[in-house]
Design brief:
By secondary structure, this protein is α/β, with parallel strands linked by helices. It contains 9 helices and 7 strands; from the N terminus they run E-H-E-H-E-E-H-H-E-H-E-H-H-H-E-H.
Amino acid sequence: MSIRQITKEQLRCMGDQEGLVLQGCGGDPQEWLDGINQILTDEGILKMGAGFENAYTSQHEGLTCMLFPFKEDMELDVGKLAVWRLASYSTFGGTWLSDYVPNRLGGFVQVQESEAEPARIKPDCPLIGTDGNIFHLIGRASKTLRKNGMQEQAEEMRNRIFQCQSYDSALSIIGDYVNITAAHQEECMDMEME
């Protein structure tokens, strides 16, 4: 298990992650990590021996805040966690990372891609103005990726989305793989080609 101190700027660069943020975590961070793992196990939220292995502490407005990041293979009951978070808000000030950063820190910032990692080519995908059901959007984005010979990226995108915890995070992940365009743009392009 590891606990790392990070800055608010580092938190603002975590737009591709999700986790539980607790506000007002004074004292020993290791006790917080152990205690939250125990509480969430006792509540049936963490399953099959799962637990937070890493945590991050940061300071904001005089409070020590802790981020408990979700791992992709983590066995947890997200519904129960959401109910627990709301029920214990007055005690822990719990919120999701995807809510905390925009509402308390001014929003996420885009991380500049390293020169070693080539820029990902993203095909246009007309999603604006279509059915907003997340499964519909995933299907359209996956179809666009497959149509452009990007089967691996389609699978990777779906796997990432099914691990995320919010609609906004899912949309953000879709935007990592395709350029989200308006549905009427595709119709206009089709008419121009005729």
